[in-house]
Design a protein that fits this description.
Blueprint (H helix, E strand, L loop, with lengths): L15 E7 L8 E6 L2 E5 L15 E3 L12 E5 L5 H4 L2 H5 L7 E3 L1 H13 L6 E3 L5 E4 L2 E7 L8 E7 L2 E5 L17 H10 L3 E5 L15 H11 L4 E4 L5 H13 L3 E4 L2 H12 L13 H4 L7 E5 L9 H6 L12 E4 L8 H13 L3 E3 L14 H11 L4 E4 L3 H13 L14 E6 L2 E7 L5 E4 L2 E2 L4 H13 L1 E8 L6 E10 L12 H13 L5 H20 L4 E8 L1
Length: 558
């Protein structure tokens, strides 16, 4: 895996350059930039959700820096499907240039347009469907149906004079999909016959042996759980998982229950899916959340967000008794989703919280209430054997997933030197069937924190972690400007400590002595005196209380 930073050379004429800006080494922030003949094509533009060591962060964006000055050269953003990790960063990119057209299927564009409306952006869009071909600048694009955990997902074949690239987006090969829309292996084979110079392939389940189970196996399990539930049922899923919501609606209708949708994104996405005909709502099943509270407990199913343990999502708030619906004995909670890597602790905390309240929690660990939307190793082997790609770039996954995918490619005959294990910012040039790494860009995390984008740094997050874990101490001292002697203080206030503030009485003489020594040495600078205070109390707290808190000294001259 390349780690050495290296600026790529100028792009030679007739060469296609590929630069992943996100999605490699992580599950999220999927975004890849293709450059040919002075024009750029972007495939996907998603977000990554924060982990526990990133407190206060709402979203993490790809680093747009390498293309910020070239947005007028972008001929379009192809969106493979409507999940947040593929469309969530589109508003932040279009804020920089609203003229960039978006290309995707009907449902994908409807979901992203609803998101953009909240940002007051009306995009230029081009709706495509499987089998369509479009010419965008020097890029000849063909769209191919793939099966995923959201309807209307597409792979894209990108043809240029430098070669043919096939990017799968997220996909699996469910042979009995709920919507009857199979991954189009016939088109894969046809493009394989033409010759695929570079294959960008979903790696999320590359380390899972065999085949991803069928989506339709979930329906009977949900039906059974809902049939046996004595009181309320709460189902948590991704807010865009149309198939899962469909299965819940069908099971609820079969057992005389009504369904209330909870969470703004769930309500918005399912309204769009229903309006476009992707969600078939049985007559009289949906009910407004406020009216649902008047129904008997055994006649209601709540469909909510929060399956990843997100602190502000509906399910987490229920577990913390911070929501109008308070789960209790007899209630059944179904977590109908996978665990995104990094979210495990948050999810188990929610499961524990709900269990403590007396709810029966059904999840992937104890019942088949979710199947993945990503191809497992067996499916990927089929793809490699059908496509016979010359070069492979595993994308979308943590390093172990990328590594497992590369191994599968090599098992089917792709030479190791043509299997590229890249990372975000790896620059790959494709020409004459040869894909080579020619550089490595220095990319960072771009944090969305409330209304600010990119202002929060890793240093700020470190400060937040220290505040949360080690506590905070402020020290105020007033000194004589002429002599440097203490007039008032030190006054010490601590937060996040079990001990009373009186415990700091022992260190006050040490601070006074250290300031007196500094004054004797002729130190009068406020910043220098503040550092003396910081070092003195920091050393004492570390030795006495075994803590490394954030210390904010304030030395005032009078």
């Amino acid at each position: 895996m390349p780690t050495q930073l290296q600026d790529p050379p100028a792009l030679e004429p007739g060469t296609l350059r590929i630069v992943p800006l996100g999605g490699l080494g992580e599950v999220g922030r999927n975004m890849t930039v293709f450059e040919f003949d002075g024009k750029l094509l972007i495939v996907d533009c998603g977000v990554l959700f924060p982990e526990e060591h990133q407190p206060g962060v709402d979203l993490i964006l790809p680093d747009f820096e390498p293309i910020k000055d070239r947005l007028d050269d972008v001929v379009g953003i192809v969106l493979t499907h409507g999940h947040e990790d593929h469309i969530g960063a589109v508003p932040y990119l279009l804020r920089l240039n609203r003229e960039i057209p978006l290309i995707g299927s009907g449902l994908t564009l409807a979901l992203v347009e609803a998101k953009l409306k909240e940002h007051r952006i009306k995009p230029y869009t081009l709706t495509v469907t499987e089998g369509d071909r479009e010419q965008l600048g020097p890029f000849d694009l063909e769209f191919i149906a793939v099966n995923h955990s959201i309807p209307d997902a597409l792979a894209v074949a990108i043809r240029t004079p430098a070669g043919v690239v096939l990017a799968t987006g997220d996909f699996k090969m469910d042979q009995l999909p709920l919507d009857g829309r199979l991954t189009d292996l016939r088109s894969f084979a046809r493009i394989g016959e033409e010759g695929i110079d570079l294959f960008l392939v979903d790696s999320t389940n590359a380390d899972v042996p065999g085949f991803t189970p069928l989506e339709r196996e979930i329906g009977p399990v949900l039906d059974q759980v809902i049939a046996k539930a004595p009181r309320r049922v709460i189902v948590a899923s991704f807010s865009s998982h149309v198939h899962r919501v469909q299965q819940v609606l069908d099971a609820a209708a079969a057992h005389g229950r009504r369904v209330a949708l909870l969470g703004r994104s769930m309500l918005r996405n399912m309204t769009i899916a229903s309006d476009l005909g992707y969600l078939n709502v049985p007559d009289g099943v949906l009910i407004d959340y406020k009216k649902a509270r008047d129904l008997p407990d055994d006649k209601i199913v709540y469909m909510s967000t929060g399956s990843q343990g997100e602190p502000m999502a509906v399910l987490s708030r229920m577990a913390n008794l911070d929501h109008e619906i308070e789960p209790g004995p007899g209630d059944t909670v179904i977590l109908a989703s996978s665990l995104i890597p990094g979210n495990e602790n948050a999810v188990y905390r929610v499961i524990d919280g709900l269990t403590k309240l007396g709810a029966n929690v059904v999840h992937k660990g104890n019942a088949r209430v979710h199947v993945s939307g990503h191809a497992a190793a067996g499916e990927l082997l089929y793809c490699y054997n059908i496509l016979k790609p010359r070069n492979v770039l595993p994308i979308h996954g943590e390093y172990r997933h990328l590594m497992a995918n590369a191994k599968l490619a090599q098992d089917t005959g792709v030479p190791a030197e043509r299997t590229i294990l890249g990372e975000n910012g790896t620059v790959i040039d494709l020409r004459d069937g040869d894909a080579r790494v020619v550089g490595q860009l220095d990319l960072g995390f771009v944090y969305v924190d409330g209304s600010t984008v990119g202002e929060i740094t890793d240093a700020d997050l470190k400060d937040r972690r220290i505040l949360g874990e080690e506590g905070f101490i402020s020290v105020i001292v007033v000194v004589d400007a002429a002599t440097g002697k203490i007039i008032s203080g030190p006054e010490i206030h601590a937060r996040g400590f079990a001990e009373h503030d009186k415990v700091f009485d022992d260190v006050k003489p040490k601070i006074a002595a250290a300031l007196a020594d500094a004054a004797q040495s002729g130190v009068r600078d406020q910043h220098a005196l503040s550092q003396v205070v910081r070092r003195t109390i920091g050393r004492w707290v570390n030795q006495r209380l075994r803590r490394r808190p954030m210390i904010v000294p304030l030395v005032i001259e009078a």
